[in-house]
Write a structure and sequence with these properties.
Blueprint: H1 13-36, H2 43-50, H3 54-60, H4 64-87, H5 93-114, H6 116-127, H7 131-153, H8 162-172, H9 174-177, H10 179-184, H11 190-205
Helix pairs in contact: 1-2, 1-4, 4-5, 4-6, 4-7, 5-7, 5-11, 7-8
């Protein structure tokens, strides 16, 4: 051990094993959610699949709701990652506003179409205001705010309050990134609607 190292810097096998077990529980639960639906999947089903007792599962998660939130975080985390990839990516601020509308619409449609059982859980999470959804909403607000501030810095966007503007633009996406609304509007041209809303928001951002 070097002179500057500390026992706190050493690996913690027990912590690593606990994290690995938590990850395995989430992975197993997610697989069962996809096949059975999250409401029909019980902690006993997850424990049986893992070859452990329900009591052992509760050592790592205090409730099924905590497992639900962990899985929901993984699903919405993909949306957040795509939003930030656009926000920090190439292109003018206007191009990135268009791109983030397109990315959110396409990503939500993919989940709604290919992950019907998972989107049911996300929809419930939104209706019940789970903490993970509140964090996700703030994350998308901040991604849009990042683009707005870039546009204000180069003079292409008006000097509006960036926090409020980020929230308003995100609100304009709701018809394309709320899973229940997307499922109800499968027959509509959501791609064209998202593109049109992006242009509407860009007109509001003009510095004139």
């Amino acid at each position: 051990m070097s002179a500057t190292s500390s026992p706190l810097d050493a690996p913690r096998p027990e912590t690593s094993r606990a994290e690995a077990t938590r990850a395995l529980i989430v992975e197993t639960a997610e697989r069962l959610f996809r096949s059975m639906g999250y409401q029909k999947t019980a902690v006993a089903d997850i424990a049986r699949e893992l070859g452990m007792s329900p009591a052992n599962v509760y050592r790592f998660f205090p409730s099924k709701a905590a497992i639900n939130e962990a899985i929901c975080a993984r699903v919405v985390g993909l949306l957040s990652a795509r939003a930030w990839a656009v926000a920090r990516g190439p292109g003018t601020p206007a191009d990135r506003i268009r791109a983030i509308f397109r990315a959110m619409q396409q990503s939500t449609l993919e989940i709604a179409f290919h992950e019907r059982r998972m989107i049911e859980m996300v929809a419930v999470a939104m209706e019940e205001h789970w903490g993970v959804i509140k964090e996700h909403v703030r994350d998308i607000d901040n991604a849009v705010r990042h683009i707005v501030m870039d546009g204000q810095a180069d003079g292409s966007f008006a000097r509006l309050d960036p926090d409020a503007t980020g929230r308003l633009i995100h609100g304009a996406m709701i018809g394309f990134c709320h899973p229940t609304l997307v499922q109800q509007c499968m027959d509509d041209d959501l791609e064209a609607m998202a593109a049109g809303m992006a242009e509407f928001c860009l007109r509001a951002l003009r510095p004139d």
